[in-house]
Amino acid sequence: MAEENIYDIKDESQIILPEDENPLRNEIKTAPLTKLNFSGTAFLLEKNHAKTRFFTTDDMVCDTEGLIHSGFIFMGANHAALLAINEEFCVSIGARINFFGPLKLGDVVEFDAQARFEESRKREVKVLGYVKDIKIFEGVFQLVTLEEHIFLAQQKNIQKEAAIRQKKEREEAKTNS
To answer: Which of 57, 40, 51, 62 is nearest to 6 (CA)?
Structure first.
């Protein structure tokens, strides 16, 4: 892990932006339009395993002391969970999480995500987050892989339910006449 705070670097040529530190971008299938400055960048991508670096920024600060809003930490951990599965149509459906310490502006979190239940559409991913050697996050995410985009699947389900309801209404109308 990087030991220095990116905000203490005087020579701007030494600054590595999250968008520049994404060597695995061509291997990532899931959530390709996710903003890396809010989710982190992958530095290890294996089957059922991903590691990401999450860089805290000014946009994440929620008070005058530089506290990072926990919603951004959750987003970074969720992104690591998605990358551990790395399927095109994968969505989060639940999570059990714990925050063990606050983040401040300039902190860099390394998330380590391990996926389980490879043969199932419904997957579980354990994610640990560390700043240096201090565990600040632990969570278990439930994700589901789909064969098509969730909006398309949802639309088909709505249409199917509507057709069933209409058929039932027609049958009831026949029996009532």
So the answer is: 57
Q: Is the full-model pTM beyond 0.85? A: no
Which tokens go with 146? Answer: 């789909």
Residues 6 or more apart in contact with residue 168 via CB below 8 angstroms: none
Q: Over the chain, what is the mean pLDDT?
A: 87
Burial (0-12, 13-18, 19+ Cβ within 10 Å), 115: buried
Residue 2, pLDDT > 60, answer no
| % of the chain beyond a pLDDT of 70 | 87
Answer yes or no: are the C-beta atoms of 59 and 35 closer than 8 Å. no
| DSSP E strand stretches across the chain | 41-46, 49-55, 90-99, 108-116, 122-131, 134-145
Closest CA to 73 of 49, 92, 101: 101
pLDDT given at position 21: 60
Retrieve residue 127's tokens.
Answer: 């994610």
Which residues lie closer than 8 Å to 173 by C-beta, 6 or more apart? none
Q: In angstroms, rounded to a whole number, what is the distance separating the alpha carbons of residues 42 and 26?
A: 11
* Torsion from C-alpha of 139, 145, 151, 155, nearest 10 degrees: -130
CA distance linking residue 127 with residue 83, whole number of Å: 11
